[in-house]
Structure formats: C-alpha cells, structure tokens
C-alpha cells in the first residue's frame, strides 16, 4: 500500500490555520469555505453538498456521489478515521473529475525497476550456485540435504555475481535515470519507450537471452494524483472542522 504521509504533511502545513465560513446551510444543502484569514484564496477550499452528492473545490474539482448515502459527510466519516483518508474507496465514488484521479508516477516506475533487478540478481545467484554445484559433481539432493554446501558454493561464486550485479545496476541507471539518459521518465510515454528498449548482458554472460523487462505492461505505474490526494485531505479536514463547530454549538 502506498504511503501518503508526504501529501498529508503538505496539506497539514497549508491548512493548519484554516477557519470555516458557512456560506449556506439548510439541512443537507451546505456550502462551506475553508481558508486562512489574511491569505486570500491561497490554500483555501470549498465543500458543497446536497443529498447523495458532494463537490470539493481545491483548485481541482471532484464531484462524488453515492445513491445509498443521503449525507455524503457520513460516507467520508465512516470510511476513514479522523485526520486520515481512504483514496482507494473514495475514488470509486467520483462522478466528475475521473481523469484527474490517477496519473503516471515515476516513483512507481523506479520501485518496479528496483524490485525486478533484485529478483533478477537473486535468480542469477541461484543459477551460478547450481552451475558451480554441477561442475563440482554435487547433486541437487546433496545441496538440499546439506545447506552448508550451498552456502560455500555461494561464497565461491559471489565475486563474479557482485561484478555482474554492479554492471547491471549501472546499465539500468544509465538507461533510465542518469542526466545523460535518452529518455525523460517523468513522462509516461518516455518511460514506456525506455522499458521497451532496455536490453543488457553483463560481461561474460552466456545465457540465451539478455536482461530485459518482459512483463512491464503488467506493472502498476499509476498512482493517485497530488490534486486528488489534496482534495481527499481537504474533505476529511473540512468535515472534521465542521463536526468540531457543530459540537461547540451544542455544548
């Protein structure tokens, strides 16, 4: 699960001095504004509700609706703790603004690439150990029965494995992430092209195929946009301020 602490911290800084203004309230028909006094519209947002609907305006606009919940504030209260958000569930309720809910995330690409390289190198070490065992006359049964043999063989092949590991990581860094790379992976199309065109063999590699990203089409390279996350935090924060004001009135 993605950690959204960074977006939460950013929103908290922007909203720490927010005050609520009730522009209109008649039952479930509400128009609430939240802003820092003296800062104009900077960091401000609005919540507008009517039965089964909620619109949040933060600079981005998202319209949520659900037939089963007349008061949409209840939906957000019940599906996330105070001060927290639930973007996965809430995104399912977006009627307008869906194109702004998710977007390509370069950090997701970096995570998938790193995970794939780590798996490649684990597989490569196992393959080198098996090859060394075969050359020295050990059977797989012997390797399984005596873990110390496999550990010793791994020690023997590790220097060459480390060399291949370093070469592979340098090739990936140069291809995707260096200042001299031919691709700007901040853009989805460029990231796809970089993934499609990557191919590399470490020095001395005699395997049938080079390293390449065979299943990258299956990777999840999208994540919730900063605008959608900001709006989710605004909804939760606005409801919390509204609830606090309601309690103060009835106290």
Give short descriptive properties of this protein.
16% strand, 6-stranded antiparallel beta sheet, 251 residues, alpha+beta, 8 strands, two-stranded antiparallel sheet
Task: Describe the structure concisely.
By secondary structure, the chain is an alpha+beta fold.
Overview of the structural elements:
There is one protein chain. The protein is an alpha+beta fold and 251 residues long. It has helices at 5-15, 72-78, 87-91, 106-136, 140-145, 147-177, 188-197, 226-250; strands at 19-26, 29-35, 45-50, 53-57, 61-65, 94-96, 102-104, 222-224. The strands form 2 sheets. It has a 6-stranded antiparallel sheet, with helices on one face. The chain has a two-stranded antiparallel ribbon with strand order 7-8. A hairpin with a 2-residue loop joins strand 3 (45-50) and strand 4 (53-57). Helix 4 (106-136) runs antiparallel to helix 6. The two termini are 39 Å apart.
């Amino acid at each position: 699960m993605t950690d959204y602490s960074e977006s939460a911290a950013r929103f908290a800084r922007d909203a720490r001095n927010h005050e609520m203004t009730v522009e209109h309230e008649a039952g479930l028909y509400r128009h609430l504004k939240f802003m820092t006094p003296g800062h104009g519209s900077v960091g401000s947002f609005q919540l507008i509700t009517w039965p089964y609907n909620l619109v949040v305006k933060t600079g981005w606009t998202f319209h949520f609706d659900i037939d089963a919940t007349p008061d949409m504030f209840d939906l957000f209260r019940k599906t996330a703790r105070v001060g927290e958000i639930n973007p996965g569930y809430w995104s399912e309720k977006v009627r307008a603004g869906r194109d702004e809910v998710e977007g390509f995330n370069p950090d997701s690409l970096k995570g998938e690439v790193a995970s794939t390289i780590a798996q490649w190198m684990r597989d490569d070490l196992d393959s080198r150990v098996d090859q060394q065992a075969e050359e020295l006359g050990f059977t797989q049964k012997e390797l399984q029965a005596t873990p110390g043999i496999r550990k010793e063989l791994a020690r023997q092949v590790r220097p060459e494995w480390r060399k291949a590991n370093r070469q592979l990581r340098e090739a990936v860094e140069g291809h995707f992430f260096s200042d001299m790379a031919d691709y700007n992976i901040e853009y989805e199309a460029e990231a796809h092209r970089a993934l499609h065109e990557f191919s590399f063999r470490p020095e001395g590699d005699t395997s049938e195929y080079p390293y390449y990203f065979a299943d990258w089409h299956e990777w999840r390279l999208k994540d919730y946009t900063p605008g959608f996350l900001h709006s989710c935090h605004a909804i939760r924060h606005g409801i919390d301020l509204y609830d606090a004001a309601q309690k103060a009135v009835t106290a």
